[in-house]
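Job type: complex structure
Entries:
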Amino acid sequence: MNPEEVEFLGEKQLISIIPTFNSSTIHLVSGDIGPFRASLPVNVPLWVAVNLKQQRKCKIQPPDWMDVEQLELLKEAEKASRNFVKMPSEHYMIEGKLLLSIATDDIARADEVRTIIKDIWDIRMAKLRSSVNTLITGKSYGNVDNLTIMEINSMRPLIPHAMDQIHRMKMERPRFSTPSQSTSLGLLNSSTVISTFK
Amino acid sequence: MSLCYSYTPNYFSIEDILVTQERIPSKFLVNVPKLGKLNPSAEENDIKQGTALDLPFWLADPLSFARHPLISIELPRVYKEAYREILKADATAVDLHKLGLYFYELGLYVKRLDPRREVEAILLHTFRSRFKELMDFADDVVCDPVKQNRLDMFERTLFQKAHFSRMQLKSWLNNSEMRLEAATMVINHKKRKRIDVDDLF
Amino acid sequence: MDTVENAEDVQSDESEYEEIAHTAAEVLELMEEAWLNEKFAPEILPHKYDIVECLLGQISHVEENLTNVGNDDLRRSLHQMELDRLRYLVSSYLRMRLEKIETYVYFILKQEEERSQKGEENYLNKNELEFAKAYMQSLDQHFTDRLHFWPGNIPTEWKNQLIIPNIHSFVFMKAKNEIEGVMVSHVNEEEEVVDLRTGSQILISYSNVGHFIKTNQSCLI
Amino acid sequence: MYGESACSLVKELDRNRGTLPPYNNELIGEVEKEICHLIQQNVADDFKAHEDSNVGAGLDYTATIRTRHAIIQRNLRCLLAYHYNRLRCLRTMRWEFGSILPPDIKVNLSHAESNWFSKYSSMLATYMRSIGDDGGVNLTIDLNPPKALYIEVKCLVDYGQYELSDGSLVLLKESNRYFLPRAECEDLIRQGVFQHIIN
């Protein structure tokens, strides 16, 4: 899966916006959104929020966790823990990336927020790399609890493919030409040839 | 396209056909009349019992693996003890590409010749000890060709796939929009055309 | 293969599905899940054409209504964007299936044949099945024509050299509910048993968990 | 060495991944010749062995026949792999170029391959038409997750008139830039007519 596909999945995450326009409910297939009343917060999918923001039709209300103090705590927890800490959002990287690229004016201390999110990502990536070793050196399965889809996807294709190959190395090799047959087949074939020639 | 399979050989696999082209030490147990051509260094009509030849694996395999084998085969030297010791000591220091283009794939074929499973163990050991380096290497934006040249074909495929997806992730982390690209074959086609035109001058 | 004993489960699951009326939003969720499952499962999965058709119906419905909406209306652009998302999801799903069908065509048709004989539900939809047969026939024809020079009987061994999906492929799976006693097989060693909590995520060989996907107890991620 | 030409066929594909090299009639001819030769010799030796065994003397040709058989099988495998992988390549070309191939690629196809290509195109079209109850779904578009509604593109060739799905016409000129609905552009980008501009 490429990152854009993961982003596609993450874009259905609901985000609170403050519209600058009025509109009745819009019946999308993925669910109704609205009604929109200027300056009243309302939840919409991330892809709608991004679109409205780009058209300057709303302000974004950043999710609670997108806050310097909270993120600092999260970062410390991630550093202190051997396991992966549960993230406040299944798609924290996607929300972070999209909102920080289009709505910096709506996010307090946006630059700091961006840095800490990146720090957390880096810490988790480093953890992931060191845990890969235990996978490669013998275990037949690996726990990936609390990893977000973008993080899981960062392991693809290398880790699963490497595990596939290790499995192959342990197995008996399948053969394309069945040898027990080939002797008899050799003679059989030529005799069928003979019969058609005669 | 969107599905990403890991390598598994099949009847039509180009890789597997190239792997089975590798030669392995063989010795004829019987006379084979009329097929002297198999031995390029002799001009006799027949192959005599006891003749030792390096046969391509695709031929050595069916002739050796049957109820009445025509030949006996042995491990290629890179899977024998001397080389196993080198790999055991430090597999990351070895230029695997030099050892054999298809070190792992051929190894998987010939490991049955070693009932003590030491070949299997050395394949696993080699792969595992070199893996971390491969993973780091896939993260480098600019690939060092010297490093790449030390990988065997199988490691190289794995590396290329990993490198491609790591670079996708890197560019996702840095940019906001993905560029839509012309289809791969269309790009190749254009490149080729350009080369053709260059040839004219 | 783990398909045989689970076929019944899959069927009962599907008939259950028909009884429940889904909202459009739920159908979309099911489509997303089917898309991910198909993307990561090495083998082809039972088709979800009921979902596909339902979603296609929604798409045409929205398209029709769009003609009544003004040109630069906000609604129009949001609906249009959503249509693009739905179209992508549906066609990407169908493309992936087609790719598997072509790659494993001999193997898949053999399995479908066996399913029909046992009176089991097919994995391919009627149109996919037709495509698969036409595709296989075109390969057969191409090879047979090429081998006309062969003295004597034209060999057909290659029809038995099936390209088979590697069901041992490692996949990332998420448990949708509690699953007890997942058997993790080891080569040359004893099996290990793992219990999964709801929401647990695990990297594991597909051969150990394929049936949990088909019985809707877990999904691939 | 036996099987050499057959392997060269496969190596040729390996060297040219992502493109389709000209159909190698000459090499295929050599492979066919080798196969025919080996089969005929096997038939002759088999026949002779039968005769000899009736007389109660003569050479044992079993080893020779078995060896030749292995070589025949190898030749067959390479020959089929060559044709199979070319078809897979053609299949990808159908998805990437559409149902009409550029002329300089077309010349690389054998007659049978051209036929297969049209056959594949038409079975794919039949399948795509059969999806849903609304005249079908074109699976060769919507290849990427949608992002923005409109995208900016640069035209790389003098394309001429292009009809948008709402019926309006655009004149596409080389190096001009256009702001068009993404869905309308995808195909032309893939065919290399447009280049996607990201500011």
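Summary: Chain D has two domains: 4-96, 150-196. Strands of chain D lie at 150-155, 160-163, 169-172, 177-181, 194-197.
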